[in-house]
Amino acid sequence: MRKILRIVFIILIVGFVVLQFFQPEKNQGQITDNDILRQHQVPENIAVILKESCFDCHSNNTRYPFYDRVAPVSWMVDDHIQDGKHELNFSEWGEMDIFDKITTLDEIARETKRKAMPLKSYKLMHPKARLSDEQIAAIEKWTTELGEELLKNSISE
Amino acid sequence: MKTKITLNLLFLGLFTLSAAASDTEKSTYYSPAQMSEEVKAVVQNKCFGCHNTDSKNDKAKEDLDFKTFDTLTNLKKVSAYKKIGDVLNENEMPPKKFLDHYPDKKLTDAEKKLLMDWAKAEAEKLVKGM
Asked: Cβ contacts (< 8 Å) between B76 and chain A: which residues?
């Protein structure tokens, strides 16, 4: 019995080690002029929130703590990132049309107000990503101001 | 005689007030912009049930309330029109579960196109300042 347990344990260990050779591609691309922080004069307090609470899943640049680099966690994290970027990618903000931008800004305000974003699972592993009520209010103010600015510019064009 | 005149005036006043109230209600009932009769009919028949202030479906009315639509800022309206187009395009509305109970509420392809074209046109008008 002990021998079987030992063999199972060894197989698991070997499997785990082999798994580490198969990793998803890291989400760490170049920052281009399409990035929201280059497209607009984003207030410092908002830029801090975006970097701390949003960009890991909603941009082309993720910060990876050590445990996110270990398979199978790395695959689960990559899955989250792909989903997040599919919904919204701040790195490609410049490529969005005005309708998408305005709607996305509205969604950002709604989702943070409902506390649906950042995701609970993400906040659990990244406590700094939690948003205070003041930060949520600041996001709502910023999204409205930026949306109004985009609309005003579009009308005057 | 004097009492009769006062009563008549009172009734007249009440009648005018109620007529005005009913007019106000009518005008805000199908408020979104210049909805054509065709669009209005589809919205009333297939969407308004859930997407109005008095709906019991809190999420639906929070997402979109046709009764108070005109009170939204232009910015919110653009976003609402865009989302209407998106959810219709993705066949997310009316929701499948709802259609299981009320299959007659399913949008026909023509109705879906009508609403999508309308929402797109209204959003474009706002963005172009028309």
From this structure: 106
Separation in Å, CA A130 to CA A51, A134, A141, B80, B125: 12, 11, 18, 28, 38
Domain segments of chain B as ranges = 1-29, 31-128
Q: What global pTM score does this model have? A: 0.78
Contact A98 B127 (CB under 8 A): yes
Mean pLDDT per block of 10 residues along chain B (130 residues) reads 50 44 42 76 89 88 88 92 94 91 92 94 88
What distances in angstroms separate CA A27 from CA A30, A89, A127, B4, one per listed residue? Answer: 10, 12, 21, 83
Which residues in chain A are closer than 8 Å to B59, comparing Cβ atoms?
A: none
Residue among B74, B75, B83 with most chain A CBs within 10 A, to mutate = B75
Q: Where are the domains of chain A?
A: 25-156
Please tell me if residue B121 touches chain A, with a CB cutoff of 8 Å. Answer: no
Task: Answer whether B59 touches A (CB < 8 Å).
Answer: no
